[in-house]
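Inverse folding, one chain.
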């Protein structure tokens, strides 16, 4: 009867085995981190007055809609226009609109595409000046809309061409 030998006792085989194990561990870790963030990660964004805004500043006890957009993105323009038109259907949610664009561009965008969201108490405009959003939230497309529950766990992720009715359903579940 022959024995199954995974590696003999030579240093070379042990080293190859160890490297393979480390590689598989890294691949597994990378796969676990792919896709949209399942829990709101730590972050530091900026309000328009350059004041810091972090995870601890999020409203508690409500659904959180975090929407990452670019002012020049057609899909972003269409989605925010549609959400703005139905903003009254989002009474159970706090909105955090995050962009890497400058303040003037974001303000012009909001005025043109999301006028009903401007100045609302449940809408916070934020700038990602440190370019953290993509690495930490891992969006798949623009716009990237995340609905998180009151415990900051992902309920649903929406990419481009999402239907506002589906976002409303996710928020009001």
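Residues assigned per position:
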């Amino acid at each position: 009867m022959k024995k199954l030998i995974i590696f003999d006792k030579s240093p070379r085989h042990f080293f190859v085995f160890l490297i393979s194990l480390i590689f598989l561990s890294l691949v597994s870790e990378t796969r676990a981190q792919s896709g949209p963030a399942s829990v709101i990660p730590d972050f530091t964004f900026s309000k328009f007055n350059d004041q810091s805004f972090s995870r601890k500043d999020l409203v508690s006890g409500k659904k959180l809609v975090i929407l990452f957009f670019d002012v020049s993105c057609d899909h972003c323009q269409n989605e925010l226009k549609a959400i703005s038109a139905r903003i009254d259907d989002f009474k159970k949610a706090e909105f955090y609109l995050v962009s890497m664009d400058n303040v003037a561009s974001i303000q012009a965008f909001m005025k043109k595409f999301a006028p009903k969201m401007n100045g609302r108490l449940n809408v916070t405009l934020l700038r990602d000046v440190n370019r953290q959003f993509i690495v930490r939230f891992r969006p798949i497309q623009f716009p990237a809309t995340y609905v998180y529950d009151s415990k900051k766990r992902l309920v649903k992720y929406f990419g481009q061409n999402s239907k506002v009715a589906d976002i409303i359903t996710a928020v009001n579940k």
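Strands lie at 44-46, 52-54, 63-69, 93-99, 123-127, 144-148, 154-158. Confidence is low (pLDDT under 50) at residues 13-32.
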